Amino acid sequence: MSAHQIPQATGPSGAPFGPPLSDRGYSLLALLCLCLLLAFRLLALYASKIDLVMDEAQYWTWSRDFDFGYFSKPPMIAWVIRAMAETCGLSEACTRAASPILYTLTSGLLFVIARTLFDARTGFWTAVIFATLPGVSYASALITTDAPLIFLWTLMMLFWVLLVKRKSMGFAILLGVAIGTGLLTKQAMIYAVLCIACHAIVSREARDALKGGRAIVAGLIAIALFSPNIFWNAEHGWPTAKHTGDNMGWRPPYVHPLAVLEFIGAQFALFGPIFFVVLIRAGIRHVGQPDDPRKTLLLCFSLPILLTLILQALLSRAHGNWAATAYPAATVFVTAMLLEHGCRVLLGISMALHIAVAAAIGIVPAFARTWLPFEQLTFLRSSIAWEETADAVRKLLSEGRYGAVLADTRDLTAELLYYMRDVDTPLYAWKRRPEPHHHYQMTRPFVAGVPEPVLLVSVHSCRRGITRKFESVTVLPTVEIPLVRNETRTLHACVLSGYRGDSQ
Protein backbone atom coordinates (compact mmCIF):
# COMPACT_ATOMS: atom_id res chain seq x y z
CA MET A 1 0.00 0.00 0.00
CA SER A 2 1.41 3.42 -0.89
CA ALA A 3 1.79 6.26 1.53
CA HIS A 4 -1.28 8.04 0.14
CA GLN A 5 -3.59 5.00 -0.03
CA ILE A 6 -4.50 4.77 3.61
CA PRO A 7 -7.78 3.57 5.06
CA GLN A 8 -9.32 5.56 7.88
CA ALA A 9 -8.27 4.27 11.30
CA THR A 10 -11.25 2.76 13.04
CA GLY A 11 -12.11 1.36 16.42
CA PRO A 12 -13.32 -2.16 17.11
CA SER A 13 -16.84 -1.29 15.96
CA GLY A 14 -15.63 0.29 12.75
CA ALA A 15 -16.51 3.83 13.88
CA PRO A 16 -13.87 6.50 13.43
CA PHE A 17 -11.45 6.92 16.33
CA GLY A 18 -12.50 10.28 17.72
CA PRO A 19 -14.75 12.92 16.13
CA PRO A 20 -14.38 13.26 12.37
CA LEU A 21 -12.77 16.52 11.34
CA SER A 22 -11.42 17.89 8.11
CA ASP A 23 -7.69 18.17 7.55
CA ARG A 24 -8.01 21.88 8.29
CA GLY A 25 -9.94 21.10 11.45
CA TYR A 26 -7.27 18.76 12.76
CA SER A 27 -4.58 21.29 11.82
CA LEU A 28 -6.29 24.10 13.70
CA LEU A 29 -6.99 21.87 16.70
CA ALA A 30 -3.35 20.81 16.85
CA LEU A 31 -2.23 24.43 16.60
CA LEU A 32 -4.60 25.44 19.42
CA CYS A 33 -3.47 22.63 21.74
CA LEU A 34 0.23 23.25 21.11
CA CYS A 35 -0.10 27.01 21.62
CA LEU A 36 -1.98 26.55 24.89
CA LEU A 37 0.64 24.09 26.12
CA LEU A 38 3.46 26.43 25.08
CA ALA A 39 1.84 29.35 26.91
CA PHE A 40 1.52 27.23 30.05
CA ARG A 41 5.18 26.18 29.89
CA LEU A 42 6.44 29.71 29.32
CA LEU A 43 4.41 30.94 32.30
CA ALA A 44 5.78 28.03 34.34
CA LEU A 45 9.34 29.07 33.48
CA TYR A 46 8.57 32.60 34.67
CA ALA A 47 7.16 31.31 37.96
CA SER A 48 9.85 28.67 38.59
CA LYS A 49 12.06 29.03 41.67
CA ILE A 50 14.64 26.59 40.33
CA ASP A 51 17.94 28.27 39.53
CA LEU A 52 19.94 27.37 36.46
CA VAL A 53 21.47 23.93 36.95
CA MET A 54 25.13 23.48 36.20
CA ASP A 55 24.79 22.51 32.52
CA GLU A 56 22.40 25.40 31.86
CA ALA A 57 24.73 27.91 33.48
CA GLN A 58 27.64 26.48 31.51
CA TYR A 59 25.76 26.79 28.22
CA TRP A 60 24.91 30.39 29.12
CA THR A 61 28.59 31.21 29.65
CA TRP A 62 29.32 29.68 26.26
CA SER A 63 26.76 32.02 24.72
CA ARG A 64 28.74 35.07 25.91
CA ASP A 65 31.79 33.90 23.94
CA PHE A 66 30.75 33.20 20.35
CA ASP A 67 32.77 30.38 18.80
CA PHE A 68 32.42 27.35 16.51
CA GLY A 69 32.93 24.88 19.32
CA TYR A 70 33.20 24.35 23.05
CA PHE A 71 34.81 21.75 25.25
CA SER A 72 32.07 19.11 25.30
CA LYS A 73 29.57 20.14 22.62
CA PRO A 74 29.27 21.83 19.24
CA PRO A 75 28.16 25.48 19.25
CA MET A 76 24.42 25.43 18.46
CA ILE A 77 23.20 25.51 22.08
CA ALA A 78 25.27 28.63 22.74
CA TRP A 79 23.90 30.30 19.60
CA VAL A 80 20.32 29.50 20.61
CA ILE A 81 20.75 30.90 24.11
CA ARG A 82 22.45 34.00 22.74
CA ALA A 83 19.55 34.56 20.34
CA MET A 84 17.08 34.31 23.23
CA ALA A 85 19.17 36.69 25.33
CA GLU A 86 19.18 39.29 22.55
CA THR A 87 15.40 39.10 22.12
CA CYS A 88 14.20 38.36 25.65
CA GLY A 89 16.89 39.04 28.27
CA LEU A 90 19.28 37.30 30.64
CA SER A 91 16.86 35.90 33.22
CA GLU A 92 16.52 32.20 33.92
CA ALA A 93 13.15 32.14 32.15
CA CYS A 94 14.56 33.81 29.02
CA THR A 95 17.58 31.52 29.03
CA ARG A 96 15.29 28.48 29.11
CA ALA A 97 12.52 29.80 26.85
CA ALA A 98 13.99 28.34 23.66
CA SER A 99 13.42 24.83 25.00
CA PRO A 100 9.58 24.77 25.12
CA ILE A 101 9.48 26.79 21.90
CA LEU A 102 11.65 24.27 20.05
CA TYR A 103 9.74 21.27 21.42
CA THR A 104 6.49 22.90 20.30
CA LEU A 105 7.92 23.43 16.82
CA THR A 106 9.08 19.79 16.84
CA SER A 107 5.53 18.70 17.62
CA GLY A 108 4.35 20.74 14.65
CA LEU A 109 6.88 19.02 12.39
CA LEU A 110 5.67 15.63 13.62
CA PHE A 111 2.13 16.67 12.69
CA VAL A 112 3.35 17.23 9.13
CA ILE A 113 5.26 13.92 9.05
CA ALA A 114 2.32 11.92 10.40
CA ARG A 115 -0.12 13.64 8.05
CA THR A 116 2.19 12.94 5.10
CA LEU A 117 2.56 9.26 5.98
CA PHE A 118 -0.97 8.63 7.31
CA ASP A 119 -3.60 11.35 7.72
CA ALA A 120 -4.37 14.58 9.58
CA ARG A 121 -6.02 12.77 12.48
CA THR A 122 -2.83 10.76 13.07
CA GLY A 123 -0.91 14.02 12.74
CA PHE A 124 -3.03 15.68 15.43
CA TRP A 125 -2.66 12.87 17.93
CA THR A 126 1.06 12.50 17.19
CA ALA A 127 1.69 16.20 17.85
CA VAL A 128 -0.28 16.20 21.12
CA ILE A 129 1.22 12.93 22.34
CA PHE A 130 4.80 14.01 21.65
CA ALA A 131 4.29 17.41 23.27
CA THR A 132 3.05 15.75 26.45
CA LEU A 133 5.56 12.89 26.70
CA PRO A 134 7.09 12.86 30.22
CA GLY A 135 10.58 13.28 28.77
CA VAL A 136 9.50 16.27 26.68
CA SER A 137 7.69 17.86 29.61
CA TYR A 138 10.78 17.52 31.77
CA ALA A 139 13.14 18.72 29.04
CA SER A 140 10.91 21.74 28.33
CA ALA A 141 11.64 23.04 31.84
CA LEU A 142 15.39 23.20 31.14
CA ILE A 143 17.62 24.39 28.32
CA THR A 144 19.80 21.58 27.05
CA THR A 145 21.34 20.48 23.78
CA ASP A 146 18.45 18.05 23.27
CA ALA A 147 15.94 20.80 22.45
CA PRO A 148 17.62 22.06 19.24
CA LEU A 149 18.85 18.53 18.44
CA ILE A 150 15.37 16.98 18.46
CA PHE A 151 13.98 19.86 16.40
CA LEU A 152 16.67 19.45 13.74
CA TRP A 153 16.41 15.65 13.92
CA THR A 154 12.69 15.83 13.23
CA LEU A 155 13.31 18.30 10.40
CA MET A 156 15.80 15.80 8.97
CA MET A 157 13.15 13.06 9.22
CA LEU A 158 10.63 15.21 7.35
CA PHE A 159 13.08 15.86 4.51
CA TRP A 160 13.91 12.14 4.37
CA VAL A 161 10.22 11.20 4.16
CA LEU A 162 9.74 13.68 1.33
CA LEU A 163 12.93 12.56 -0.40
CA VAL A 164 11.80 8.92 -0.35
CA LYS A 165 8.41 9.92 -1.67
CA ARG A 166 9.47 12.36 -4.41
CA LYS A 167 13.12 11.50 -5.21
CA SER A 168 13.95 15.22 -5.52
CA MET A 169 17.44 16.74 -5.44
CA GLY A 170 15.94 19.70 -3.58
CA PHE A 171 14.98 17.50 -0.65
CA ALA A 172 18.42 15.87 -0.74
CA ILE A 173 19.95 19.33 -0.32
CA LEU A 174 17.59 20.10 2.56
CA LEU A 175 18.40 16.73 4.13
CA GLY A 176 22.11 17.59 4.05
CA VAL A 177 21.41 20.99 5.59
CA ALA A 178 19.41 19.42 8.42
CA ILE A 179 22.06 16.78 9.16
CA GLY A 180 24.93 19.25 9.03
CA THR A 181 23.13 21.74 11.26
CA GLY A 182 22.21 18.91 13.62
CA LEU A 183 25.86 17.90 13.88
CA LEU A 184 26.58 21.47 14.98
CA THR A 185 24.13 20.80 17.82
CA LYS A 186 25.10 17.42 19.27
CA GLN A 187 27.17 14.40 18.31
CA ALA A 188 24.05 12.21 18.45
CA MET A 189 22.98 13.56 15.06
CA ILE A 190 25.35 10.96 13.59
CA TYR A 191 22.54 8.45 14.24
CA ALA A 192 20.89 9.90 11.13
CA VAL A 193 23.49 8.11 9.01
CA LEU A 194 22.78 4.83 10.83
CA CYS A 195 19.01 5.20 10.44
CA ILE A 196 19.13 6.14 6.76
CA ALA A 197 21.50 3.23 6.11
CA CYS A 198 19.14 0.80 7.88
CA HIS A 199 16.21 2.09 5.87
CA ALA A 200 18.17 1.78 2.63
CA ILE A 201 19.02 -1.85 3.46
CA VAL A 202 15.39 -2.90 3.88
CA SER A 203 13.63 -0.57 1.43
CA ARG A 204 14.05 -0.33 -2.34
CA GLU A 205 12.34 3.08 -2.28
CA ALA A 206 14.96 4.33 0.18
CA ARG A 207 17.78 3.03 -2.01
CA ASP A 208 16.24 4.75 -5.04
CA ALA A 209 16.04 8.00 -3.08
CA LEU A 210 19.81 7.94 -2.58
CA LYS A 211 20.59 7.41 -6.27
CA GLY A 212 21.30 10.08 -8.88
CA GLY A 213 24.00 11.72 -6.77
CA ARG A 214 21.49 12.69 -4.08
CA ALA A 215 23.36 10.82 -1.32
CA ILE A 216 26.66 12.43 -2.31
CA VAL A 217 25.15 15.93 -2.41
CA ALA A 218 23.48 15.51 0.99
CA GLY A 219 26.67 14.13 2.51
CA LEU A 220 28.90 16.89 1.14
CA ILE A 221 26.54 19.60 2.38
CA ALA A 222 26.39 18.03 5.84
CA ILE A 223 30.19 17.78 6.05
CA ALA A 224 30.63 21.36 4.81
CA LEU A 225 28.25 22.73 7.45
CA PHE A 226 29.89 20.69 10.21
CA SER A 227 33.45 21.52 9.12
CA PRO A 228 33.83 24.72 11.24
CA ASN A 229 33.44 22.62 14.37
CA ILE A 230 35.91 20.04 13.04
CA PHE A 231 38.49 22.78 12.42
CA TRP A 232 37.83 24.26 15.88
CA ASN A 233 38.44 20.87 17.51
CA ALA A 234 41.62 20.36 15.52
CA GLU A 235 42.93 23.75 16.66
CA HIS A 236 42.14 23.00 20.32
CA GLY A 237 43.47 19.45 20.61
CA TRP A 238 40.18 17.61 19.92
CA PRO A 239 38.54 18.26 23.32
CA THR A 240 35.02 17.31 22.17
CA ALA A 241 36.18 14.00 20.75
CA LYS A 242 38.09 13.21 23.96
CA HIS A 243 35.10 14.15 26.10
CA THR A 244 32.80 11.97 24.01
CA GLY A 245 35.22 9.07 24.36
CA ASP A 246 35.35 9.55 28.13
CA ASN A 247 31.53 9.59 28.26
CA MET A 248 31.36 6.27 26.42
CA GLY A 249 33.62 4.78 29.08
CA TRP A 250 34.52 1.52 27.35
CA ARG A 251 36.66 -0.18 29.99
CA PRO A 252 36.79 -3.70 31.43
CA PRO A 253 34.76 -5.70 32.36
CA TYR A 254 32.55 -4.58 29.41
CA VAL A 255 29.44 -6.29 30.80
CA HIS A 256 27.06 -4.17 32.88
CA PRO A 257 23.60 -5.78 33.02
CA LEU A 258 22.41 -3.38 35.72
CA ALA A 259 23.28 -0.42 33.46
CA VAL A 260 21.12 -1.98 30.73
CA LEU A 261 18.20 -2.35 33.13
CA GLU A 262 18.67 1.22 34.32
CA PHE A 263 18.67 2.50 30.74
CA ILE A 264 15.54 0.53 29.80
CA GLY A 265 13.83 1.67 32.99
CA ALA A 266 14.57 5.26 32.08
CA GLN A 267 12.82 4.77 28.73
CA PHE A 268 9.63 3.69 30.52
CA ALA A 269 9.75 6.97 32.44
CA LEU A 270 10.70 9.25 29.52
CA PHE A 271 8.46 7.80 26.78
CA GLY A 272 5.68 6.69 29.12
CA PRO A 273 5.21 3.09 30.32
CA ILE A 274 2.26 2.27 28.06
CA PHE A 275 3.70 3.87 24.94
CA PHE A 276 7.08 2.18 25.45
CA VAL A 277 5.46 -1.25 25.82
CA VAL A 278 3.42 -0.62 22.67
CA LEU A 279 6.55 0.48 20.82
CA ILE A 280 8.52 -2.65 21.72
CA ARG A 281 5.66 -5.12 21.23
CA ALA A 282 4.37 -3.64 17.98
CA GLY A 283 7.90 -2.96 16.75
CA ILE A 284 8.98 -6.59 17.18
CA ARG A 285 5.79 -7.81 15.52
CA HIS A 286 6.28 -5.49 12.54
CA VAL A 287 9.92 -6.47 12.13
CA GLY A 288 8.78 -10.10 11.91
CA GLN A 289 5.97 -9.23 9.47
CA PRO A 290 6.87 -6.03 7.61
CA ASP A 291 3.58 -5.25 5.89
CA ASP A 292 3.63 -1.44 5.81
CA PRO A 293 6.57 0.57 4.36
CA ARG A 294 5.56 3.63 6.37
CA LYS A 295 5.96 1.79 9.67
CA THR A 296 9.21 0.27 8.44
CA LEU A 297 10.57 3.77 7.84
CA LEU A 298 9.55 4.89 11.32
CA LEU A 299 11.08 1.87 13.01
CA CYS A 300 14.32 2.41 11.09
CA PHE A 301 14.53 5.81 12.76
CA SER A 302 13.91 4.52 16.28
CA LEU A 303 14.85 0.87 16.94
CA PRO A 304 18.49 1.08 15.68
CA ILE A 305 19.11 3.94 18.11
CA LEU A 306 17.61 2.05 21.04
CA LEU A 307 19.54 -1.12 20.19
CA THR A 308 22.80 0.80 19.83
CA LEU A 309 22.33 2.43 23.22
CA ILE A 310 21.41 -0.85 24.89
CA LEU A 311 24.74 -2.18 23.62
CA GLN A 312 26.46 0.97 24.89
CA ALA A 313 24.83 0.48 28.30
CA LEU A 314 26.00 -3.14 28.37
CA LEU A 315 29.58 -2.10 27.59
CA SER A 316 29.61 0.85 29.99
CA ARG A 317 26.59 3.07 30.66
CA ALA A 318 23.97 5.07 28.79
CA HIS A 319 21.96 7.99 30.12
CA GLY A 320 18.23 7.83 29.49
CA ASN A 321 18.11 11.02 27.43
CA TRP A 322 20.66 9.64 24.97
CA ALA A 323 17.73 7.87 23.30
CA ALA A 324 15.90 11.15 22.67
CA THR A 325 16.39 10.97 18.90
CA ALA A 326 14.49 7.68 18.78
CA TYR A 327 11.23 9.15 20.02
CA PRO A 328 10.01 11.46 17.25
CA ALA A 329 9.68 8.50 14.88
CA ALA A 330 8.57 6.21 17.71
CA THR A 331 5.76 8.61 18.59
CA VAL A 332 4.41 8.58 15.03
CA PHE A 333 4.64 4.77 14.96
CA VAL A 334 2.91 4.20 18.30
CA THR A 335 0.21 6.75 17.55
CA ALA A 336 -0.54 5.14 14.18
CA MET A 337 -0.72 1.70 15.81
CA LEU A 338 -3.06 2.85 18.58
CA LEU A 339 -5.36 4.59 16.12
CA GLU A 340 -5.28 1.70 13.69
CA HIS A 341 -6.35 -0.79 16.35
CA GLY A 342 -8.81 1.53 18.08
CA CYS A 343 -7.03 1.43 21.44
CA ARG A 344 -9.10 4.15 23.08
CA VAL A 345 -8.47 3.00 26.64
CA LEU A 346 -4.69 2.77 26.30
CA LEU A 347 -4.53 6.15 24.60
CA GLY A 348 -6.81 7.74 27.19
CA ILE A 349 -4.91 6.37 30.18
CA SER A 350 -1.55 7.34 28.71
CA MET A 351 -2.67 10.85 27.83
CA ALA A 352 -4.19 11.38 31.28
CA LEU A 353 -0.98 10.21 32.95
CA HIS A 354 1.25 12.32 30.70
CA ILE A 355 -0.87 15.46 31.10
CA ALA A 356 -0.75 15.03 34.88
CA VAL A 357 3.05 14.74 34.73
CA ALA A 358 3.26 17.78 32.44
CA ALA A 359 1.11 19.80 34.85
CA ALA A 360 3.20 18.76 37.84
CA ILE A 361 6.48 19.58 36.11
CA GLY A 362 5.10 23.00 35.22
CA ILE A 363 3.54 23.88 38.59
CA VAL A 364 5.72 22.28 41.27
CA PRO A 365 8.96 24.30 40.57
CA ALA A 366 7.09 27.46 41.56
CA PHE A 367 7.03 26.06 45.11
CA ALA A 368 10.55 24.68 45.18
CA ARG A 369 11.59 26.76 48.18
CA THR A 370 8.40 26.37 50.22
CA TRP A 371 6.87 22.95 49.53
CA LEU A 372 7.98 20.58 52.26
CA PRO A 373 8.19 17.38 50.13
CA PHE A 374 11.03 19.06 48.25
CA GLU A 375 13.19 18.46 51.29
CA GLN A 376 13.35 14.81 50.29
CA LEU A 377 14.69 15.56 46.80
CA THR A 378 18.47 15.30 46.95
CA PHE A 379 18.94 17.06 43.58
CA LEU A 380 17.36 20.20 45.02
CA ARG A 381 20.53 21.25 46.80
CA SER A 382 22.23 21.66 43.43
CA SER A 383 19.40 23.58 41.78
CA ILE A 384 18.47 26.37 44.19
CA ALA A 385 20.08 29.23 46.12
CA TRP A 386 22.86 29.91 43.62
CA GLU A 387 21.89 33.58 43.51
CA GLU A 388 22.24 33.71 47.30
CA THR A 389 25.59 31.95 46.98
CA ALA A 390 26.71 34.58 44.48
CA ASP A 391 25.52 37.31 46.86
CA ALA A 392 27.68 35.81 49.61
CA VAL A 393 30.72 35.90 47.31
CA ARG A 394 29.90 39.53 46.38
CA LYS A 395 29.86 40.41 50.08
CA LEU A 396 33.27 38.82 50.58
CA LEU A 397 34.64 40.77 47.62
CA SER A 398 33.29 44.01 49.07
CA GLU A 399 35.16 43.40 52.34
CA GLY A 400 38.60 43.25 50.74
CA ARG A 401 40.67 44.13 47.69
CA TYR A 402 41.02 41.04 45.50
CA GLY A 403 42.59 40.62 42.11
CA ALA A 404 40.63 37.50 41.18
CA VAL A 405 38.17 34.86 42.33
CA LEU A 406 39.17 31.20 42.13
CA ALA A 407 36.54 28.41 42.03
CA ASP A 408 37.52 24.80 42.61
CA THR A 409 34.79 22.96 40.64
CA ARG A 410 33.04 23.23 37.28
CA ASP A 411 29.55 23.62 38.76
CA LEU A 412 30.58 26.45 41.07
CA THR A 413 32.48 28.20 38.26
CA ALA A 414 29.47 28.01 35.93
CA GLU A 415 26.97 29.16 38.56
CA LEU A 416 29.10 32.11 39.70
CA LEU A 417 29.76 33.23 36.13
CA TYR A 418 26.01 33.49 35.56
CA TYR A 419 24.88 34.87 38.92
CA MET A 420 27.87 37.22 39.25
CA ARG A 421 27.74 38.44 35.65
CA ASP A 422 27.65 42.04 36.93
CA VAL A 423 30.96 41.67 38.86
CA ASP A 424 34.15 42.92 37.20
CA THR A 425 36.58 40.82 39.25
CA PRO A 426 37.78 37.99 36.95
CA LEU A 427 36.90 34.43 37.87
CA TYR A 428 39.22 31.49 37.24
CA ALA A 429 38.92 27.70 37.45
CA TRP A 430 41.42 25.52 39.27
CA LYS A 431 43.19 23.08 36.98
CA ARG A 432 44.50 20.04 38.82
CA ARG A 433 46.09 18.22 35.87
CA PRO A 434 47.90 19.34 32.70
CA GLU A 435 45.03 18.11 30.51
CA PRO A 436 41.79 20.11 30.92
CA HIS A 437 38.78 18.12 32.11
CA HIS A 438 36.09 20.71 31.53
CA HIS A 439 35.44 23.92 29.59
CA TYR A 440 36.66 26.35 32.23
CA GLN A 441 39.93 24.52 32.76
CA MET A 442 40.50 25.02 29.04
CA THR A 443 39.33 28.63 28.69
CA ARG A 444 40.03 30.29 32.05
CA PRO A 445 42.53 28.19 34.04
CA PHE A 446 44.29 29.74 37.02
CA VAL A 447 47.91 30.36 35.98
CA ALA A 448 50.89 32.29 37.20
CA GLY A 449 50.46 36.03 36.79
CA VAL A 450 46.84 36.23 37.90
CA PRO A 451 46.42 39.38 40.04
CA GLU A 452 46.63 38.71 43.77
CA PRO A 453 45.40 38.36 46.43
CA VAL A 454 43.02 35.66 45.24
CA LEU A 455 39.69 34.82 46.86
CA LEU A 456 39.28 31.04 46.77
CA VAL A 457 35.64 29.95 47.15
CA SER A 458 34.32 26.41 47.48
CA VAL A 459 31.21 24.56 48.61
CA HIS A 460 33.43 21.72 49.89
CA SER A 461 36.52 23.13 51.63
CA CYS A 462 39.66 25.17 51.02
CA ARG A 463 41.39 22.12 49.66
CA ARG A 464 44.95 21.40 50.66
CA GLY A 465 45.80 20.58 47.05
CA ILE A 466 45.16 24.25 46.21
CA THR A 467 46.28 26.13 49.31
CA ARG A 468 49.68 24.40 49.48
CA LYS A 469 50.63 26.10 46.22
CA PHE A 470 50.47 29.54 47.87
CA GLU A 471 52.84 31.16 50.35
CA SER A 472 50.10 32.89 52.31
CA VAL A 473 46.70 31.41 53.18
CA THR A 474 44.05 33.10 55.33
CA VAL A 475 40.94 31.08 56.11
CA LEU A 476 37.76 33.19 56.29
CA PRO A 477 34.65 32.28 58.31
CA THR A 478 32.26 29.94 56.51
CA VAL A 479 28.90 31.20 55.30
CA GLU A 480 25.74 29.11 55.62
CA ILE A 481 23.28 29.63 52.78
CA PRO A 482 19.68 28.43 53.39
CA LEU A 483 18.23 25.93 50.93
CA VAL A 484 15.01 24.34 52.22
CA ARG A 485 14.02 24.46 55.86
CA ASN A 486 16.87 22.66 57.66
CA GLU A 487 19.11 22.27 54.60
CA THR A 488 22.02 24.67 53.97
CA ARG A 489 24.93 25.08 51.58
CA THR A 490 28.26 25.85 53.26
CA LEU A 491 30.47 28.34 51.43
CA HIS A 492 34.16 28.10 52.29
CA ALA A 493 36.55 30.93 51.44
CA CYS A 494 40.28 31.55 51.75
CA VAL A 495 42.53 34.47 50.82
CA LEU A 496 45.55 33.30 48.84
CA SER A 497 48.72 35.10 47.79
CA GLY A 498 52.23 34.18 46.67
CA TYR A 499 51.41 31.59 44.02
CA ARG A 500 54.24 29.04 43.72
CA GLY A 501 53.09 27.53 40.46
CA ASP A 502 53.80 23.84 40.05
CA SER A 503 56.80 23.92 42.38
CA GLN A 504 54.79 22.50 45.24
Describe this structure in words.
- The chain is of the alpha/beta class and 504 residues long.
- It is built from 23 helices and five strands.
- The protein has a five-stranded mixed beta sheet with strand order 2-1-3-5-4, covered by helices on one side.
- A hairpin with a 5-residue loop joins strand 4 and strand 5 (488-499).
- Helix 14 runs antiparallel to helix 17 and helix 15 crosses helix 18 (327-340).
Produce the secondary structure layout.
Elements: H1 23-47, H2 54-63, H3 76-87, H4 92-96, H5 98-117, H6 120-131, H7 134-139, H8 146-166, H9 169-183, H10 191-202, H11 204-209, H12 214-235, H13 239-248, H14 257-271, H15 273-288, H16 293-300, H17 303-315, H18 327-340, H19 344-363, H20 386-398, E1 404-407, H21 410-419, E2 427-429, H22 439-443, E3 454-458, H23 464-467, E4 470-482, E5 488-499
Parallel strand pairs: 1-2, 1-3
Antiparallel strand pairs: 3-5, 4-5
In short:
Helices cover 58% and strands 7% of the residues. The chain has 504 residues and is an alpha/beta fold. α21 links the parallel β1 and β2 (427-429).
